[in-house]
């Protein structure tokens, strides 16, 4: 045996630990993923969260019921309307408040527009994750319209405090209804255009198809919800299966992943579920614009809200999955306990199971496809 | 529905001692009309049997395939911490709040109960969060570490008697200069009124004394 061969035998290989984040553009915020890599292959992915933790649940215990609403905005700051709606529905269910029908319609319009805005954001940032820059600029034009409408309605572009206990804060005008209607038509067309640009792109398909597969068993085991669950082929949508507000009156489909480009539950499936959901949301908004009735926008709510003793678990379908509030009241002016069940928290806990075996770049594609918002994870 | 579930739990896990608790309604003494209680019902079980109960509920006829959340509630007066396991079934379209109580202890020696990670992988992070926020230890958890707070944090924030530590790694927590300025200014503006509570949240001015 030559001398050089002896040397090579002594060489040992070991795993390299790489810290992805917390300041990394592909982690969508302050998520840190500790990855152990064997050359380019990920063997272990451990998420470290909590960089944005401000213990919102403790804050809620020290505020009266109305004052909690702005705090719920700051959970998922890209879909703040949905966060408000769930909390308000929980309190209203305990108070047995009757909400005027016009307010219900406005709530559904804004929460569906918010879902579109959030999915557009996903569309743009996901394309950036995979190296395409221009879709990001396209979708921001459309998102801008929605933010403008929200600004006119609530006075804020991101954190609205618009949906109040008993109704909504501000009425929607006929002019706004007309403009949202035309926006729906243009968005329907432009979404198709964007999809051919990104979703049918050969490079995009090869980066996402058969990558980061989350199958049905795994999704159920980890308690995944929303587009991640539907991407895995499970037809489950709270708006359809356990309707709240006026969703039982509305007509829409629940798109699921079918493994068109690869296998069921891969990144492409989660992408296409979100794109199709936007089309469904447009359908819902159109029905609401047609069905909206004149009337008051605020129901009768006592000046000082005292929720009767008891507890409730209220969950709704938000942009990223199911959001649940477990509200415990002791009969006082403040919640005794408000637990936020966040969908992103459960999704991020799936990373150790999805990560191993992927390339590093595919891990970026997977994290992008589960679409996390750190404000909701860390609370 | 809840009665069926409780019966199922009691037959499959003998020591579970499952009981249904429904929200308490009120009866008007004058008219005799009973208004039903508000909110959800739940089932309480013994803490030691929580793993067996969860396993039975998942694999049994009621198909609680997913664990949605584990929510802790600290009852300071009763000296107990309540853990609410929120289960959901997609096939049957049902949801269930399963509760169990452990003594809250003094925050140093932690109460223990069996972990359900082997039943649902979702419990991994949820139990870690519960440990982090309430100081409840789960037996058989693969990696019971803090998840939201730093590893070397002291105290359990969502306990009702929690006091924030003063310093963390030589950094002052909540320095006076960074406290809520609005509230301090509000207090300063109203400090001249004798007996006024000077906080935005709880502001009150005493009624002026009547002239004799």
Structure characterization notes:
The complex is a heterodimer of chains A (379) and B (212). Chain A has 379 residues and is mainly alpha-helical. Chain A has one domain (54-378): Cytochrome-c3 Hydrogenase, chain B. In chain A, 49% of the residues lie in helices and 12% in strands. Chain A is built from 16 helices and eight strands. Chain A has helices at 3-10, 56-61, 69-73, 80-95, 101-129, 134-154, 174-198, 202-208, 216-221, 226-231, 238-241, 267-291, 343-348, 351-354, 360-370, 374-378, and strands at 16-20, 32-38, 41-48, 163-164, 167-168, 310-317, 322-329, 337-341. In chain A, helix 5 packs antiparallel against helix 6, helix 5 (101-129) runs antiparallel to helix 12 and helix 12 (267-291) runs parallel beside helix 15 (360-370). Chain A starts with a helix and ends with a helix. In chain A, 50% of the residues are buried. The mean pLDDT of chain A is 87. With 212 residues, chain B is an alpha+beta fold. Chain B folds into two domains: 2-161, NADH:ubiquinone oxidoreductase Nqo5 subunit (Beta Polymerase, domain 2, 2-Layer Sandwich); 175-207, no CATH class. Chain B contains four helices and eleven strands; from the N terminus they run αββββαββββαβββα. Chain B has helices at residues 2-12, 50-59, 123-134, 181-189; strands spanning 19-21, 26-27, 34-35, 42-44, 66-75, 80-89, 94-103, 111-114, 136-139, 167-168, 171-172. A five-stranded mixed beta sheet of chain B has the order 1-4-7-6-5. Chain B has a two-stranded antiparallel sheet with strand order 2-3. In chain B, strand 8 (111-114), helix 3 and strand 9 form a beta-alpha-beta unit. Chain B is flat and about 70 Å long. Chain B starts with a helix and ends in a 23-residue tail after the last helix. The mean pLDDT of chain B is 80. Classes of the chains: A mainly alpha (379), B alpha+beta (212). The A-B interface holds A 49-50, 53, 55, 57-58, 62-63, 93-94, 96, 220-223, 234, 236, 241-242, 308-313, 315, 322, 324, 326, 328, 336-337, 339, 341, 345-346, 348-349, 353, 378-379 and B 23-24, 37-40, 42, 65-69, 71-74, 84, 86, 90, 93, 95, 97, 120-122, 124-126, 129, 133, 146-150, 157-158, 162, 201.
């Amino acid at each position: 045996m030559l001398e050089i061969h002896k040397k090579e035998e002594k060489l040992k290989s070991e795993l390299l630990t790489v810290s992805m984040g917390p300041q990394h553009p592909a982690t969508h915020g302050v998520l840190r993923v500790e990855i152990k890599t064997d050359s380019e292959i990920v063997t272990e992915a451990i998420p470290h969260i909590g960089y944005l933790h401000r213990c919102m649940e403790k804050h809620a215990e020290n505020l009266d019921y109305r004052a909690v609403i702005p705090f719920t905005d700051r959970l998922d700051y890209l879909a703040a309307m949905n966060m408000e709606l769930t909390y308000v529905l929980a309190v209203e269910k305990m108070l047995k408040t009757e909400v005027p029908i016009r307010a219900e319609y406005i709530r559904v319009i804004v929460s569906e527009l918010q879902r579109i805005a959030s999915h557009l954001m996903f569309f743009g940032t996901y394309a950036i994750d995979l190296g395409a820059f221009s879709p990001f600029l396209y979708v921001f034009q459309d998102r801008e319209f929605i933010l403008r409408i929200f600004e006119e309605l609530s006075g804020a572009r991101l954190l609205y405090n618009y949906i109040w206990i008993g109704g909504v804060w501000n009425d929607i005008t006929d002019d706004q209804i007309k403009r949202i209607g035309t926006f729906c038509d243009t968005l329907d067309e432009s979404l198709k255009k964007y999809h051919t640009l990104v979703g049918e792109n050969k490079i995009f398909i090869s980066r996402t198809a058969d990558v980061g597969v989350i199958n049905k068993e795994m999704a159920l085991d980890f308690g995944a919800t929303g587009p991640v669950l539907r991407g895995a082929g499970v037809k489950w949508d709270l708006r359809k299966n356990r309707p709240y507000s006026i969703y039982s009156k509305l007509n829409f489909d629940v798109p699921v992943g079918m493994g068109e480009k690869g296998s069921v539950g891969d990144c492409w499936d989660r992408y296409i579920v979100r794109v199709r959901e936007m089309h469904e949301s447009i359908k819902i908004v159109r029905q609401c614009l047609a069905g909206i009735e004149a009337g008051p926008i605020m129901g009768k709510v006592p000046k000082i809200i005292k929720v009767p003793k008891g507890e409730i678990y209220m969950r709704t379908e938000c942009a990223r999955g199911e959001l649940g509030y477990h509200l415990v009241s002791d009969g006082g002016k403040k919640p005794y306990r408000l637990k936020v069940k966040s969908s992103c928290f459960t999704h991020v806990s799936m990373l150790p199971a999805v990560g191993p075996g992927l390339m590093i770049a595919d891990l970026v594609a997977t994290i992008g496809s589960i679409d996390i918002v750190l404000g909701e994870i860390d609370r | 529905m809840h009665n069926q579930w409780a019966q199922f739990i009691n037959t499959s896990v003998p020591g579970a001692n499952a009981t249904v608790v429904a929200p308490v309604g009120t009866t008007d003494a004058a008219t005799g009309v009973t208004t039903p209680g508000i909110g959800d019902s739940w089932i309480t079980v013994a803490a030691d049997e929580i793993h067996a109960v969860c396993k039975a509920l998942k694999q049994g006829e009621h198909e609680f395939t997913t664990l949605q959340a584990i929510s802790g509630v600290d009852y300071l007066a009763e000296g107990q911490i309540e853990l609410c396991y929120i289960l959901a079934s997609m096939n049957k379209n049902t949801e269930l709040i399963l509760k169990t109580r452990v003594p809250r202890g003094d925050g140093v020696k932690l109460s223990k109960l069996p972990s359900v990670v082997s039943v649902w992988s979702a419990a991994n992070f949820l139990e870690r969060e519960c440990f982090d926020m309430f100081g409840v230890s789960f037996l058989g958890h693969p990696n019971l570490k803090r998840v939201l707070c730093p590893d070397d944090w002291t105290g359990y924030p969502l306990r009702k008697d929690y006091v924030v530590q003063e310093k963390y790694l030589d950094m002052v927590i909540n320095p006076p200069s960074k406290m809520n300025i609005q509230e301090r200014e509000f207090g300063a503006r109203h400090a001249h009124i004798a007996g006024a509570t000077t906080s935005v949240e709880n502001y009150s001015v005493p009624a002026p004394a009547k002239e004799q």
